[in-house]
């Protein structure tokens, strides 16, 4: 591995905390990368939080929605005492209320939405800003891993976080700058998408440098909770300040990820060898003293790699495991080509499966608060803030789904079977949520939790454990450069689906949400169907293993009988 990295400025603090303890050092890195990517997801959440404010009534299935749930709307209604009460209850509200809050005409405009999103076709425009972000995110993913291989990942990740935060803030500043140009919001979202693409390849590569292969599905399933935690934080923060103006729902998450970038710059250690700690892949060092043993890890990974393949980021050339394999590979400097990577067993099925899985997951990420806001639950229309807070249950379910999917795939040693089972179960969950979620609040909450678990479970599994398994597939012949190519292919396909889902929803929802849920159910079905061949192979392998185990038991019993028979005959 090229030693082109410098130790972070906060390394003295890290050493004081961790000392020479590899486990403590690894724990710190897991926490830092967890927080970093949670910040990425928190900064992606604001567009979904403010949708119902930007376009409060256009195309709504509930035209009688009461829009007076903000300070601005209360002021327009002429209720000065209510504004005064809010100011007393929230001492810092003067920071959030626009200086021209007395301008009734402008406040009325805000209460009725924000041009150009509150005009005819407003939901389609909201879908366009989503796809602008996600398309650039998908495109950037194909390049981010390769750039990360050639740059210091600590600096690369810091630049990505600060850049992302800057453009998230610029979107929110359109509120105070009174910007109503669709092109401004599209441009800001496109650049933000490119910066956001730096996150996943970087954190997965860094975690790969520190973590071995033992219980990969469970460990990465727990660590992958940063996605849902970030969504929850973004929802809570965005919803909390939404009554003061939708711009704050962007500004605070944007500042949060920038602060996270400073944390990464000061404390992140890309590789344990940068701080004179042994790598878990060096043999006898690192994790070998703190986990059960390398032989168990090898067996687990060998079995897992036969059943998985996936995306996401890049453990790239930074993957120390790939570096170890490179040392014994005669052609280790030759990277695998783009077309060659496609024929690696499992790449294509999981890549296309992730396309449809992320299509469903990101549709909920960007549109769930809007859907809840425009749906009467037990006959009640929720406010923007309440709808945003309720939607976090989907992400809470996603945390449990990711952990459960990872644990089951480890126990069963069957990544494809686990992912396909979750995906197929998501189809009836989508139907039940749409048909019965409006009956009562508790039922809506329960169905949303279950839906989040079933939708995010396979998505989390594919983007973590499956991806790591495929990146170490035996057909790679020890070529470390194949890892970045393979993961870019899978994550790029998944991110393309993430761009398509919210865009289609913006158009289809104009005709009614029944059609949107039909699209989501069809997508979930396609995701499971694309894994059929891998599921059949895994099932056949399991059946073959059971038969062989049965034959071994029979042969041992027969052998035992043969040994005991002479004694029996002798007694006769």
Automatic annotation (TrEMBL):
<keyword id="KW-0472">Membrane</keyword>
<keyword id="KW-0812">Transmembrane</keyword>
<feature type="transmembrane region" description="Helical">
    <location>
        <begin position="183"/>
        <end position="210"/>
    </location>
</feature>
<feature type="transmembrane region" description="Helical">
    <location>
        <begin position="21"/>
        <end position="43"/>
    </location>
</feature>
<feature type="transmembrane region" description="Helical">
    <location>
        <begin position="342"/>
        <end position="367"/>
    </location>
</feature>
<feature type="compositionally biased region" description="Low complexity">
    <location>
        <begin position="555"/>
        <end position="564"/>
    </location>
</feature>
<dbReference type="GO" id="GO:0022857">
    <property type="term" value="F:transmembrane transporter activity"/>
</dbReference>
<protein>
    <recommendedName>
        <fullName>Major facilitator superfamily (MFS) profile domain-containing protein</fullName>
    </recommendedName>
</protein>
<dbReference type="InterPro" id="IPR036259">
    <property type="entry name" value="MFS_trans_sf"/>
</dbReference>
<feature type="transmembrane region" description="Helical">
    <location>
        <begin position="126"/>
        <end position="144"/>
    </location>
</feature>
<feature type="transmembrane region" description="Helical">
    <location>
        <begin position="156"/>
        <end position="177"/>
    </location>
</feature>
<feature type="region of interest" description="Disordered">
    <location>
        <begin position="547"/>
        <end position="572"/>
    </location>
</feature>
<dbReference type="GO" id="GO:0016020">
    <property type="term" value="C:membrane"/>
</dbReference>
<dbReference type="InterPro" id="IPR020846">
    <property type="entry name" value="MFS_dom"/>
</dbReference>
<dbReference type="Pfam" id="PF07690">
    <property type="entry name" value="MFS_1"/>
</dbReference>
<feature type="transmembrane region" description="Helical">
    <location>
        <begin position="482"/>
        <end position="504"/>
    </location>
</feature>
<feature type="transmembrane region" description="Helical">
    <location>
        <begin position="516"/>
        <end position="536"/>
    </location>
</feature>
<feature type="transmembrane region" description="Helical">
    <location>
        <begin position="387"/>
        <end position="405"/>
    </location>
</feature>
<dbReference type="GO" id="GO:0055062">
    <property type="term" value="P:phosphate ion homeostasis"/>
</dbReference>
<feature type="transmembrane region" description="Helical">
    <location>
        <begin position="222"/>
        <end position="244"/>
    </location>
</feature>
<feature type="transmembrane region" description="Helical">
    <location>
        <begin position="445"/>
        <end position="470"/>
    </location>
</feature>
<feature type="transmembrane region" description="Helical">
    <location>
        <begin position="412"/>
        <end position="433"/>
    </location>
</feature>
<keyword id="KW-1133">Transmembrane helix</keyword>
<feature type="transmembrane region" description="Helical">
    <location>
        <begin position="250"/>
        <end position="270"/>
    </location>
</feature>
<feature type="domain" description="Major facilitator superfamily (MFS) profile">
    <location>
        <begin position="70"/>
        <end position="540"/>
    </location>
</feature>
<dbReference type="InterPro" id="IPR011701">
    <property type="entry name" value="MFS"/>
</dbReference>
<feature type="region of interest" description="Disordered">
    <location>
        <begin position="279"/>
        <end position="331"/>
    </location>
</feature>
């Amino acid at each position: 591995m090229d030693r082109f990295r410098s130790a972070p400025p906060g390394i003295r603090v890290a050493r004081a905390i961790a000392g020479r303890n590899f486990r403590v050092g690894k724990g710190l890195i897991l926490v830092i990368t967890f927080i970093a990517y949670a910040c990425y997801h928190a900064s992606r959440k604001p567009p979904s939080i403010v949708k119902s404010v930007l376009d409060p009534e256009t195309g709504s299935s509930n035209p009688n929605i009461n829009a007076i749930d903000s300070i601005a709307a209360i002021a327009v209604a002429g209720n000065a005492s209510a504004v005064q009460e809010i100011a007393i209850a929230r001492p810092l509200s003067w920071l959030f209320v626009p200086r021209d809050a007395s301008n009734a005409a402008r406040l009325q405009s805000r209460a009725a939405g924000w041009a150009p999103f509150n005009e005819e076709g407003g939901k389609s425009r909201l879908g366009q800003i989503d796809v602008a972000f996600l398309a650039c995110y998908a495109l950037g993913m194909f390049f981010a891993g390769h750039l990360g291989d050639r740059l210091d990942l600590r600096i690369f990740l810091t630049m990505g976080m600060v850049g992302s935060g800057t453009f998230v803030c610029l979107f929110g500043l359109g509120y105070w700058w009174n910007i109503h140009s669709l092109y401004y919001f599209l441009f800001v979202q496109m650049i933000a998408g490119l910066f956001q693409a730096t996150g996943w390849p970087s954190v997965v590569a860094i975690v790969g440098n520190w973590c071995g292969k033992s219980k990969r599905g469970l460990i990465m399933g727990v660590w992958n909770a940063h996605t849902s935690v970030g969504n929850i934080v973004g929802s809570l923060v965005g919803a909390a300040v939404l009554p003061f103006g939708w711009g704050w729902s962007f500004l605070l998450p944007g500042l949060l990820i920038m602060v996270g970038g400073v944390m990464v710059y000061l404390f992140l250690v890309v590789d344990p060898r940068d701080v004179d700690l042994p790598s878990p892949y060096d043999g006898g060092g690192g994790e070998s003293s703190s986990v059960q043993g390398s032989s168990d890890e090898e067996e687990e990974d060998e079995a897992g790699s036969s059943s998985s393949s996936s995306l996401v980021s890049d453990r790239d050339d930074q993957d120390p495991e790939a570096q170890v394999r490179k040392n014994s590979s005669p052609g280790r400097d030759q990277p695998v080509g783009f077309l060659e990577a496609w024929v690696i067993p499992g790449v294509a099925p999981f890549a296309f499966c992730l396309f449809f899985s992320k299509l469903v997951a990101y549709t909920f990420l960007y549109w769930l608060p809007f859907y809840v806001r425009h749906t009467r639950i037990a006959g009640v229309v929720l406010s923007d803030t309440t709808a945003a807070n309720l939607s976090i249950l989907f992400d809470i379910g996603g945390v449990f789904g990711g952990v459960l999917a990872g644990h089951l795939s480890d126990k069963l040693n069957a990544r494809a079977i686990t992912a396909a089972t979750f995906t197929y179960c998501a189809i009836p969950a989508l139907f039940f949520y749409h048909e019965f979620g409006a009956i009562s609040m508790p039922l809506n909450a329960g169905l949303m939790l279950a839906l989040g678990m079933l939708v995010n479970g396979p998505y989390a599994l594919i983007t973590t454990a499956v991806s790591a398994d495929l990146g170490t597939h035996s057909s790679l012949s020890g070529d470390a450069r194949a890892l970045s190519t393979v993961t870019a292919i899978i994550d790029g396909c998944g991110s393309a689906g993430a761009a398509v889902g919210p865009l289609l929803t913006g158009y289809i929802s104009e005709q009614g949400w029944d059609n949107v849920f039909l699209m989501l159910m069809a997508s979930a079905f396609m995701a499971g169907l694309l894994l059929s061949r891998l599921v059949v192979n895994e099932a056949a392998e399991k059946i073959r293993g059971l038969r062989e185990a049965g034959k071994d038991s029979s042969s041992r019993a027969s052998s035992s009988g043969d040994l005991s028979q002479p004694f029996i005959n002798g007694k006769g």
